[in-house]
Amino acid sequence: MDPEAAHIVLHAFSPKDANTHPKVTLVPWEACLDASIPWLTFDTLTAASSNSNAAFLKQICTAYEAAERKAKDEAEASPTVEGGFISGFCPCDGYALTVADLGKPAVKRARNLFCTVELSGSVSRGACAYDWRGALPGRHPNVRLVQDVELDSVVRVLRETFC
Fold first, then answer.
1. What whole-number distance in Å separates Cα of residue 79 and Cα of residue 113?
2. Is the pTM of this model over 0.85?
C-alpha cells in the first residue's frame, strides 16, 4: 500500500458537509476474517475441473491454502499452539468486489466515519485512523466502513463465477 496515495484519495473524496454520503467504501481485513469461507465450500468452488475459472482460483491459492490448512491442523492438534490461522478461505478482493457490485445486500453492518491514513506516527505508518465518536471538529464522514460482510452473498457470487 502507498500511504500517501491512500491519504490523498480519502481527503480528495471528503464530503464538504455532514449531509453528503461518503463516496469511498472500505472493507477492512477484520471484516474479511470474520466472514472467511469454510474450506469445504472452497473445495466445492474449485472442484469443477472443467471450469477454467475454478482451476485458476485453485492454482493461485495453492500456497495460501496449504499454509492455512497446516496452521489450522497444528493449532487443533496441540493446545499449546496459539491461533494465528484463518478459519477458512478469505478472498479479501472478492469481498470488496462483491460489496461494490451488490451494495447493500452484501453488507450486514456498515458505518459512516471520518478516516485518515497515518503518515508520520512513531508507532504506525500507513494505518487507518477512524474518528469513531465524531469528535474531530470540522471532519465529516468520508468513508463507509463495512464491519460485517454478508457471507451468503459472497459465496453466491463466487459460485456464479467458479462453478
1. 39
2. no
pLDDT in tens, 133-152: 989 888 899 999 999 999 89
Structural domain harbouring 43: 36-89
Give the angle 150-156-159 at the CA atoms, nearest 5°: 140
6 shares its domain with 29: yes
Cβ atoms of 144 and 25 within 8 Å: the answer is yes
H helices, E strands: number in the chain: 7, 4
Number of domains in the chain: 2
Within this chain, do residues 149 and 131 fall inside the same structural domain, yes or no?
Answer: yes
Q: Which amino acid is at 64?
A: Y
Hey, what's the cell of 60?
493461485
Residues 81 and 1 in one domain: no
pLDDT-derived band of residue 26, with 50, 70 and 90 as boundaries?
very high
Question: Phi first, then psi: what are they for 117, rounded to 5°?
Answer: -110, 130
Do 107 and 30 belong together in one domain? yes
Query: Which has the closest alpha carbon to 94: 44, 31, 49?
Result: 31
Give CA–CA dist 148/125, Å, rounded.
25
Give the span between the Cα atoms of 136 and 143, in whole angstroms.
Answer: 15
Cα separation, 119 vs 91, whole angstroms? 27
